[in-house]
Amino acid sequence: MDDCIFCKIIKGEIPSITVYEDDDVKAFLDISQATKGHTLLVPKKHVQDIFAYDDALAQKVLTKIPMVAQAIKDSDPKILGLNIVNNNGEVAYQSVFHSHIHFIPRYGKDDGFSMAFSDNSAKYDQDALNQTAAAIKAQFN
Ligand code: AMP
Ligand code: ZN
Question: Which Pfam families match (predicted)?
Answer without folding.
Answer: HIT
